[in-house]
UniProtKB/TrEMBL annotation:
Residues 240-260 are annotated as: Disordered. It comes from the Eukaryota. It comes from Rotaria magnacalcarata. This is Uncharacterized protein.
Length: 260
């Protein structure tokens, strides 16, 4: 617990700073103002609405302030997922910090690579938000193993997702969402599928859902239910292409849940 004993409940932070309260942690001062400052004086601010975590407040290099009611890592430099220098505050996501779940946000103009994860997201990452103008590279170049999310994930794609593996599928467990917003895009040098799988048995659920090599010019949402069934929505051509053959999925196959 961090206790705020200041008289004005105002903490000042320089740019490139981050404060995170983990789930179960307490700041003991709801209403405290977290504010950036520089040589010209105080700047943008955020107010702590709850004394309990999870909570994250980050002061970006441009002096803007972002706050979230979650443990959130903000990518502010192009680089790898396991590189501390990629993220605000110089700390990369880890299993201990993310034991109760974490979120990732990729800032505009930044490219976040997952090549160093070797095709598998083992951390408990609840969501990845790709900002407009940002890029998430999914997979490892030259690998035919695709990419697997080991736990439920919500992918918010306002920028661009690039699938860079040379083969395999994007593997999603139940309760996941793959969401391309208007203005967002998906791109791959090879035709790519989403395969739903059971993380307990390792078996695939249903048939692969085709993404193809590109999704642009509209919205695309694939929502996976608790049982592994899914629904497609949106205005992109990929929605109608998938819906014509398989608009909802279910059942399990005998194939394994590898990303290959």
């Amino acid at each position: 617990m961090i206790e705020d004993q200041t008289s004005n409940k105002n903490f000042l932070f320089p740019s490139n700073s981050i404060m995170t309260i983990l789930s179960g942690g307490r700041f003991a001062a709801a209403g405290t103002i977290l504010q950036t400052y520089n040589s010209n004086g105080p700047g943008a601010s955020a107010t702590l609405s709850s004394a309990s975590g999870p909570f994250t407040c980050g002061v970006l290099p441009d002096g803007s302030v972002q706050s979230y009611n979650s443990v959130t890592f903000i990518a502010i430099k192009s680089g790898g997922f396991t590189s501390a220098g990629t993220f605000l505050g110089g700390v990369a996501p880890s299993s201990d910090v993310c034991s109760a779940g974490c979120a990732i946000r990729v800032a505009a103009g930044i490219m976040l690579s997952t090549a160093d994860l070797n095709g598998v997201m083992t951390l408990s990452i609840n969501s990845i938000y790709i900002s407009l103008g940002a890029t998430l590279q999914l997979g490892t170049p030259g690998s035919s193993n695709g990419f697997k999310f080991s736990s439920a994930i919500i992918l918010h794609i306002f920028g661009q997702m690039l699938f860079v593996a040379s083969g395999g599928n994007i593997m999603l467990p139940p309760n996941s969402n793959f969401d391309i917003a208007a203005g967002g895009a998906f791109s791959s040098s090879i035709s790519t599928n989403i395969q739903i799988f059971n993380p307990l048995t390792g078996l695939n659920i249903g048939s692969p859902q085709i993404l193809g090599t590109s999704i642009t010019g509209g919205t695309f949402t694939l929502s996976v239910g608790e049982s592994g069934s899914f629904q497609l929505n949106g205005t992109a051509a990929a929605v109608s292409n998938n819906s014509s053959s398989n608009s909802t999925g279910g059942g399990s196959s005998n194939s394994t849940g590898s990303a290959s």
